[in-house]
Amino acid sequence: MELNNNEGQTTPRTMLGRRLRRMREDADLSIRALAEKVGYPYSYIGRVERGEQLPSEALVNAFDAHFGTSGLFVDLWEMTHNEVIADYSRKVVSREPDAERIEVFNSSVVPGLLQTPDYARELFRTGLPGVGEEELTERVAVRMHRQHIFERKEAPFYWAIMDEAALKRPVGGQECMQGQLSRVLEAAKHSRITVQVLPFSEGAHSILGGGLTLLTLKSGGTIGLVESFDSGEVVESPKRLARLSQSFAVVTSKALPEDKSIGLIRQHLKDYENEHDC
Question: What average pLDDT does the segment 247-272 reach?
């Protein structure tokens, strides 16, 4: 899950920086002058221009607004996402915007499309020891940007099943988990989002210790991703996809109904709130 080492190569990150510098110089602006016009620190813009740091989504929108580039910088920024997405999951993540339905099971953490920034940052921090704060910020920003698919007029149907362990494990501490479980409860109100919990009482199951994502594409095809803690495999074989769909169906049958799942999430949220008050 390390950042790709593209030193000396043309990457989306360096392309964005070069285009920014070219447009800034064509407008006869210094970095400080541009910083004043868009309302961001000049040192930050300088790092972006040199390809040392990815800009935030808000900053690339500010560049497009200032230069009148009709989404050019946003498009370049979206192209940089591949640099901070694990190689094994890149193909599946890139197809999320083309999905009619997304089915996800996670055995130990809240699914990425339902995560809060604080929760995601803590997962990246502990899963990628030694990674700097700037890279953590970039990874979190990319994950949060993926969640925009739920804001589309015709958002994909999203079915998330979580092992109860994901609710019980205090990632980032009580306050972080309060925010995270509140986020899940809010997401569950969306007409196209279904959230279920597989309780501890069900014991062992076929996807124990791993994760599974199945994307049903608008074209009618399906693509899957099977993950462990530090690796994953993209699945496109119809025979294997049928087996994975069966595994998801079995887990679904063992999970609590939606209303009882919401009740269990609320109970865990209450437990975190009580711990915080102690």
Answer: 96
